[in-house]
Design a protein that fits this description.
The chain is an all-alpha fold. 78% of the residues lie in helices and 0% in strands. The chain is built from five helices and no strands. Helix 1 packs parallel to helix 5 and helix 3 packs antiparallel against helix 4. The protein is elongated. It starts with 5 loop residues before the first helix and ends with a helix.
Length: 175
């Protein structure tokens, strides 16, 4: 596997779409904390779930490619980093599943009525930021963008996490 595979390029594009989805979804959710909105956009959530499922499949494929690369076998450092990406992804999945359970139990409009809903949103924003920070170098490489933007991507991920955590807390406080 001498150069970047098409699988990595597709996974980079899917990952970027997921990041945009999370920002849009969280923005709409934040607004719902202050102003009730229509829930007629459930199809958009399923689109995000489909993108996440595609990302997992593509990550399995790229991980196998990386681990079985005869031209450039992965170093122990790359193997550890791959394990870290999978661990942060698994944590993100677990918190996203908790978000779904709380939203289905409390109702999407009432996520911020209880501190457990706020805690899940804060944990979800944090887990996404951590996963993006860990995978930022790979994401930029997959998108054929200079890795010099890694710090900017990490800063943006952390900034969005803080904004959404504060919005969740504010939504809870005004209820």
């Amino acid at each position: 596997m001498a150069g970047k595979s098409k699988t990595r390029a597709v996974n980079g594009a899917v990952s970027a779409c997921i990041a945009v989805f999370f920002v849009v979804h969280a923005s709409i959710g934040s607004v719902m904390g202050f102003v009730p909105l229509s829930t007629n956009f459930a199809w958009a959530v399923w689109l995000g779930v489909g993108l996440a499922a595609a990302h997992v499949v593509l990550c399995v494929a790229t991980s196998v490619q990386q681990l079985t690369d005869a031209v450039r076998p992965p170093s122990i450092h790359k193997k550890r980093h791959l394990a870290l990406k999978w661990a942060t992804g698994a944590a993100l999945f677990a918190v996203a599943a908790a978000h779904v359970v709380v939203a289905r139990t409390a109702g999407a409009h009432d996520m911020l009525a209880d501190i457990s809903g706020v805690a899940v949103i804060v944990a979800l924003a944090t887990a996404l930021a951590v996963h993006l920070c860990v995978g930022s170098k790979s994401l930029l490489k997959d998108l054929n963008i200079s890795r010099s933007y890694r710090t900017a991507v990490r800063a943006a991920a952390c900034a969005f996490a803080v904004v959404f955590a504060v919005a969740a807390l504010a939504g809870f406080a005004i209820r």
